[in-house]
Each structure stands twice: as C-alpha cells, then as structure tokens.
Amino acid sequence: MGTKQTSKGKGDRTRLQRPIEPPARIEAPRVLPPAVGDGKATVSPEERREMVRLAAYLRAESRGFQGGSELEDWLAAEAEIDRQLGAPRTD
C-alpha cells in the first residue's frame, strides 16, 4: 500500500483568505459642534470618510467578519453617519 503525498509547490491551488487588517487606531467618531445658525454638524469630507470607514469596520467586527459584505457594511455605515450628522438623503 502506498502513502498519499501532498504537494506544497506551485501546483497547490488552495486559496488562503487574507486576514482583515484592523484600522491603525480605533476610537469613537468625533462630531464637531453644530455651526452657528444651521443646526447641523460640520465635518470635512475626509472626516466623514474616516467616520464611515470606522463604522463599517465595527459592523464587520461585530459579526466576527463572517457573512455580509464590505459594500453592505459601507453603505449601512454611510447611512448611519449621515443620519448622525443630519445630512439630507440623496436617494
């Protein structure tokens, strides 16, 4: 009886999942105080994007990075952050 050999060379087509990298720092999103007169928070596009990125990461982390999709997490995070910032809906 022969023994089964396994290949570890180029022919091995096993695909490894790349681990999801956590953000460099995890901290609660900061919302600046409302601007005088308009009653809405003012954040730069870069600040908003960082807030959305963190919220999407936390969504994925809360389900153990299983199921769902990056796009679903991002879109839900955008809606959540826009709601918190009082942004008008664009759909």
Report on this model:
With 91 residues, the protein is an all-alpha fold. The chain has a domain at 45-85. It has 2 helices and no strands. It has helices at residues 45-62, 70-85. Helix 1 packs across helix 2. The longest helix has 18 residues, at 45-62. The protein is elongated, with a radius of gyration of 21 Å. The model has no long low-confidence stretch (mean pLDDT 76).
Give the topology, please.
Blueprint (H helix, E strand, L loop, with lengths): L44 H18 L7 H16 L6
Please sum up the structure shown.
It is built from two helices and no strands. With 91 residues, it is an all-alpha fold. The termini are far apart.
| Unreliable segments of 5+ consecutive residues | none
Q: Provide the structure class.
A: mainly alpha
CA-CA gap between termini: 67 Å
Evaluate the radius of gyration. 21 Å
Mean pLDDT: 76
Largest sheet, strands/sense/barrel: none
Give the % helix: 25-40%
Number of strands: 0
Strand content: under 5%
Total helices: the number is: 2
Q: Describe the global form.
A: elongated
Q: Could you give the order of the helices and strands?
A: HH
